[in-house]
Design goal:
Layout: E1 3-9, H1 13-23, E2 29-36, H2 43-52, E3 55-57, H3 60-67, E4 71-74, H4 81-90, E5 95-98, H5 106-119, E6 122-125, H6 133-143, E7 150-157, H7 161-175, E8 181-189, E9 208-215, E10 220-226, E11 234-239, E12 242-246, E13 254-258, E14 265-266, H8 276-288, H9 298-317, E15 321-322, H10 331-337
Parallel strand pairs: 1-2, 1-4, 2-3, 4-5, 5-6, 7-10
Antiparallel strand pairs: 7-11, 8-9, 8-15, 9-10, 11-12, 12-13, 13-14
This protein binds nicotinamide-adenine-dinucleotide (NAD).
């Protein structure tokens, strides 16, 4: 079993969950050695330092230069994900777990992918819902033909596209077998001029968004996000012969109506998954050691960002767009600059 030296960049909320996730890994020996945060004396950094006895640097470049890390989690705010990933790749880090959203623009995402390909680093994006038992089961049920031919996946949650919206879009992709998108149409509302909300203090965001994505396999994805959507992540998969509901607020985490089985709604047994974050890291080890492709790999992360970029751009030009999406920048920011929203 190989030993991996671990560091975390950004020691806030989610960093604590990553740190616990590393401890539970069973396919490698983990040495959690350091963290880095703009505020190394802040409460998150102190918590990590006390719980794990690690040093917390004020500058991640110094940590990377001194600590010879094998695995790095990037748990900072979105606009820093690209620079931190490039720095980690440059220091030869073997596995980089970058939190969502992957980046704020496709130009940044491509730089990250290129740098990691060059350095031989395995880059994954923290779309951790791919490891939730209900998502894993729903995808398997579709692949087993339990609802006939999949035609539509609807997904929603209450936050914006670049925050939990990226989870919704990525999970629709996962449930759809990671098919490529062919076209996208979207609309956003930004009458509240939201900025710097919650754990995205460096971001601008929309109040509400809707998106319709046509995939090359014929499936349509419907995305409904923001103020008037429910807080909970919820998904509905419609097939020619049945329906799967994921995370119904008032029922089991997953229920299935299968015309094939003809026994009405029922809740299939879910696989036992110890913890999503720990499974995400174990699969990263598997990917580094060549035994698996990571389901949250950078290409899948980029695909979610490309759909988000397409929704913003479609809203800007008031028309559907074909893939690949040409816009390389953070389109929402451009729309705000140009007074479009
Ligand atoms: N996968 C998930 O389910 C999930 C859940 C929560 C948050 N997230 C993502 O994780 C990221 C962080 O969220 P959070 O809730 O932990 O936020 P947070 O504000 O609690 O923590 C972020 C930390 O990063 C530090 N930081 C920011 N820029 C830095 C830099 N350049 N160098 C060093 N440190 C820096 C801040 O000082 C802060 O301590 C966000 O992108 C968010 O979307 C993902």
């Amino acid at each position: 079993m190989n030993t991996y030296r671990v560091g975390i960049i950004g020691c806030g909320n989610i960093a604590g969950v990553h740190a616990d996730g590393y401890q539970a890994v069973r396919n490698a020996k983990i040495e959690f050695v350091a963290g880095a945060d703009l505020d190394p004396k802040g409460p998150g950094a102190q918590r990590l330092s006390e719980k794990y006895g690690i040093e917390v640097y004020g500058d991640y470049a110094e940590m990377l230069a001194k600590e010879r890390l094998d695995l790095v989690s990037i748990c900072t705010w979105p606009r820093t994900h690209c620079a931190a990933t490039l720095a980690a790749a440059q220091h030869g880090v073997k596995g980089i777990l970058c939190e969502k959203p992957m980046a704020v623009s496709l130009a940044e995402a491509d730089q990250m992918i290129e740098a990691c390909e060059k350095s031989g680093s395995t880059l994954i994006v923290g779309h951790v819902h791919r490891f939730s038992p209900q998502a894993v089961k729903a995808r398997a049920l579709v692949q087993q033909g339990e609802i006939g031919k999949l035609t539509l996946i609807w997904g929603h949650c209450a936050l914006d596209l670049m925050n939990n919206g990226t989870h919704v879009i990525d999970l629709i992709g996962f449930l759809n077998g990671d098919a490529e998108p062919a076209w996208v149409m979207g609309q956003i509302d930004r009458r509240r001029h939201l900025e710097g909300r919650g754990n995205h203090p460096d971001m601008v965001m929309e109040d509400m968004a809707i998106g319709r994505v046509g995939y090359t396999n014929g499936v349509v994805g419907l995305i409904e996000l923001g103020e008037r959507a429910d807080q909970a992540f919820a998904f509905k998969l419609v097939g020619t012969d049945g329906i799967i509901e994921v995370n119904r607020p008032d029922g089991p985490k997953l229920r299935l109506l299968s015309g094939f089985r003809q026994r009405g709604w029922y809740a299939p047994e879910l696989p036992s998954i110890h913890s999503t974050f720990h499974s995400e890291i174990e699969e990263l080890i598997e990917a580094i050691e060549g035994r698996a492709t990571h389901r949250g790999n950078a290409r899948n992360g980029r695909r979610a960002l490309e759909i988000i970029t397409g929704i913003f751009e479609s809203s800007r030009i008031r028309a559907a767009l074909d893939f690949p999406i040409a816009a390389r920048d953070f389109v929402l920011e451009r729309m705000i600059r140009e007074g479009a929203v």
